[in-house]
Amino acid sequence: MARSLIAARVTVSAAAEAEYQRLAAALAGLLEARGEHLWVFRARSRPGQFLEFREGRTGTGKLPGTPVTSAERVLDSELRQIGNYADGEVLWEEVAILKQTER
């Protein structure tokens, strides 16, 4: 099964950054337990700017990182309350590339 990735740019106020990181870490732990991943990257030159990536398998009938349990839904909702997901989310799907030996 191929992988898919949701990418989102998130803006968080300086006052909410620690809470954003705490919530993201908690959600990452829950997603990891069911084989998905959440990664967060910070823009060094842009305070409060983060890139959030949620990765999972294609063909599961849902987007990667989509909350399944009530605990995940609560954390996801809290993240969206303190972060501005202005650009929305973009779904990226894995492309199978041939290795040199497969040509």
Question: Helices, strands, pairings?
Answer:
Elements: E1 3-12, H1 17-33, E2 37-42, E3 49-57, H2 70-82, E4 83-84, E5 89-93
Antiparallel strand pairs: 1-3, 1-4, 1-5, 2-3
Helix pairs in contact: 1-2
Please describe the structure with a list of short key phrases separated by commas or semicolons:
103 residues; alpha+beta; Alpha-Beta Plaits; five-stranded antiparallel β-sheet; 2 helices; 29% helix; 31% strand
Share in helix: 25-40%
Shape: globular
Taking all Cα atoms into account, the compactness measure Rg is 15 Å
Beta-strand proportion: 25-35%
Cα-to-Cα separation, first versus last residue: 21 Å
The count of domains is 1
Structural class: alpha+beta
Reported CATH architecture:
2-Layer Sandwich
CATH topology (fold) name: Alpha-Beta Plaits
